[in-house]
């Protein structure tokens, strides 16, 4: 009974951590929201940003459950902060950072795209929660204390963050693979189309040339036949010509 009670207690702690996850994220976002223009640009262009920035909520530093008005306000504030006009000392990097913010905002404006992003985040959370439960089951089976490292709120948050980033990255890799495959298929189809068009052109040119030279070929054949006939007649006349008679000499 004690073990069961301990398990229920630790599971309730996990649920509480799970529920408080975004509250902690909000606090971090509130702290980071005061970053300077340069710091925001550095954040958006840090090494690995091509994958970090796949999470639009991470780019905008906003709660996934934020309202449309909150989303709009956050975009406006962040876009002004990293806009090239405000960062004339580093316009190229500012432009890239602004494009990342703009892309994330536009993606979240589309209901279907926003739902997909939320699904990825929820999947990451569920994975970590499931992993925590599996660890506790194994600890219980081994007769050990049911404490796990994810009991620490910071560790739990980081685990969810890493898993979410991993899922976003996997989806992006699959998307690129599909895109490359589609491009290859389109290229192959185009090459086949060009080859078929060239073959049809060659066939038409051959047919045209055949038609244009047909009369000449017929005339040549007739001439050849006529010459052959005359040669045969001449040969026949030679064959039928009587032999010459030699005159006898008189003494």
TrEMBL record:
Suppresses polyglutamine (polyQ) aggregation of ATXN3 in neuronal cells. InterPro entries: DnaJ_domain (IPR001623), DNAJC8 (IPR042858), J_dom_sf (IPR036869). Transmembrane segments: none annotated. Residues 132-151, 176-251 are annotated as: Disordered. SMART domains: DnaJ. The gene is dnajc8. Residues 55-122 form the J domain. Gene3D superfamilies: DnaJ domain. Residues 227-238 have a biased composition (Basic residues). Its main location: nucleus. Keywords: Acetylation, Chaperone, Nucleus, Phosphoprotein. Interacts with SRPK1. Interacts with HSP70 (HSPA1A or HSPA1B). Residues 176-220 have a biased composition (Basic and acidic residues). The keyword Magnesium does not apply. One of its GO terms (cellular component) is nucleus. CDD domains: DnaJ (cd06257). This is DnaJ homolog subfamily C member 8. It is found in: Nucleus. It holds the Pfam family DnaJ.
């Amino acid at each position: 009974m004690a073990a069961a009670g301990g398990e229920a207690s630790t599971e309730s702690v996990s649920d509480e951590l799970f529920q408080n996850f975004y509250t902690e994220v909000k606090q971090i976002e509130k702290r980071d929201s005061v970053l300077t223009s340069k710091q925001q640009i550095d954040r958006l262009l840090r090494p690995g940003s091509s994958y970090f920035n796949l999470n639009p909520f991470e780019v905008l530093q906003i709660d996934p459950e934020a309202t449309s008005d909150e989303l709009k306000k956050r975009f406006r504030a962040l876009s002004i902060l990293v806009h090239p006009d405000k960062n004339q000392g580093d316009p190229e990097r500012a432009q890239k950072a602004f494009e990342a913010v703009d892309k994330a905002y536009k993606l979240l404006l589309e209901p279907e795209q926003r739902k997909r992003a939320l699904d990825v985040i929820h999947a990451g959370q569920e994975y970590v929660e499931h992993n925590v439960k599996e660890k506790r089951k194994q600890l219980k089976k081994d007769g050990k204390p049911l404490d796990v490292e994810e009991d620490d709120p910071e560790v739990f948050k980081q685990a969810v963050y890493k898993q979410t980033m991993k899922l976003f990255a996997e989806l992006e890799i699959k998307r690129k693979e599909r895109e490359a495959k589609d491009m290859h298929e389109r290229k192959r189809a185009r090459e086949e189309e060009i080859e078929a068009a060239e073959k049809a052109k060659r066939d038409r040119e051959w047919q045209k040339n055949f038609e244009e030279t047909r009369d000449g070929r017929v005339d040549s054949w007739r001439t050849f036949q006529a010459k052959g006939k005359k040669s045969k007649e001449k040969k026949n006349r030679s064959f039928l010509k009587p032999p010459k008679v030699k005159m006898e000499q008189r003494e």
